[in-house]
Amino acid sequence: MDFRIEDITRDEIDRRLSVVEPLTDSVRDLVDAVIRSQVSDAELDAARAKIDEVVAALRTQQRPGSFGTPYTREFIGMPWGNAAVGARNALAPPLRVTRSPGVAECDMVLGAAYEGPGGCVHGGVAALMLDQLVGEAASTDGLPSFTGTLTVRYLRPTRLGALTARAEVTGREGRKTFVHATMSDDDGVTVEADAIMVSPKGFELPDGDALPHPANSRQDL
Amino acid sequence: MDFRIEDITRDEIDRRLSVVEPLTDSVRDLVDAVIRSQVSDAELDAARAKIDEVVAALRTQQRPGSFGTPYTREFIGMPWGNAAVGARNALAPPLRVTRSPGVAECDMVLGAAYEGPGGCVHGGVAALMLDQLVGEAASTDGLPSFTGTLTVRYLRPTRLGALTARAEVTGREGRKTFVHATMSDDDGVTVEADAIMVSPKGFELPDGDALPHPANSRQDL
Predict the structure, then answer these.
(1) Which residues in chain B are closer than 8 Å to A149, comparing Cβ atoms?
(2) Partner-chain contact B23 A51, CB within 8 Å
(3) Is the pTM of this model over 0.95?
(4) Each residue of A58-82: pLDDT tens digit?
(5) Could you tell me which of A32, A160, A134 has the C-alpha nearest to residue B62?
(6) Which InterPro entries does UniProt cross-reference here (chains A, B) (predicted)?
(7) Does B157 sit within 8 Å of A26, measured CB to CB?
(8) What is the pLDDT of residues B117-140, one digit of tens each?
(9) Which of A154, A204, B116, B218 could form a disulfide with B122 if both were Cys (CB 3.0 to 4.6 A apart)?
């Protein structure tokens, strides 16, 4: 995996975000508009020509490959290309995750671009958002980890619209961290997930030093 | 879930796709360019202004809500808003799935927009693509079904780039269909998934009439 140090100040990060966030929001808007538009074929063709012009202008200077996951020396991450949280990635809603020890949560609005069954969130999109959240919950103490196994249970269809999601660490054992997560609409939980996160070698807890299960988080939703 | 009949001919479907597919490809290109561009802030702002103009033009006539899942009377589906396979959805790579009885497979190229860890496919994106494939495999005989449980195991990081995926029905029991799926790069399987798909009531097989497990599909990858 590719990491890189990009040693910029918090102010410079904010300045860059003030430019790219509105741009990415406009692209999200465009993704939605292309799905739902009912204008004529000629107008769709005209839209394509204009988009191609914009792409050509943006590509006059571009980084090779992907955005990667740069960090400042103060270890502020800038995962701006990330498919779930990326500030430069129009595929991401983006999730704006709030973290406290062992917990990650967020509100999100999933529109037409996240559809699977008619009018409903694609089951795989729910898995994508919950995979991101379990990773964020597992790393709130700075421990790096990757998803080893993710089990997602679909309790009922999730309508497109405003949703909340929450992930909470439920235990630790050696290099494994166990995380439970849920996605909910106004009527309660629609999807739940359990993840076994795995930390790289050298990050395991000593034998028998598993963290206790925190209070069951699902009633908080 | 929302279904609707849109009774158009195969020729009319092809005609519409010939307009929307190149448009959506251009938006995919734009999503990638916004992630990777290194042009000046002024140029990024100019891009945003042009995109907003395109969005306004497309939105002069648009359907409410989402695209939905229209079908012709011959039951040809047009899930063009779908997050994994949608011809109008720039979030979808899109997967172009080949189906045979009990099997769904596809090649795909996942670029910068599908990133999680630096240079690698987001684990949740792998889950999204495999969720789509298990649904396609389970429905090759026309039986409607939805994902009940999806278990995804990450064997090693999946580098961004050219990948293949395959899903195969391994058994049936009442309203449940069991499907095994894999995602692979040139060196072999990187992610595997098992799904329990559930069909609506009235679609169950009689007791004891479970289908036999087909030959293990993983060696084919």
Answers:
(1) 151-154
(2) yes
(3) no
(4) 999 999 999 999 999 888 899 999 9
(5) A32
(6) HotDog_dom_sf, THEM4/THEM5_acyl-CoA_thioest, Thioestr_dom
(7) no
(8) 999 999 999 999 999 999 999 999
(9) B116
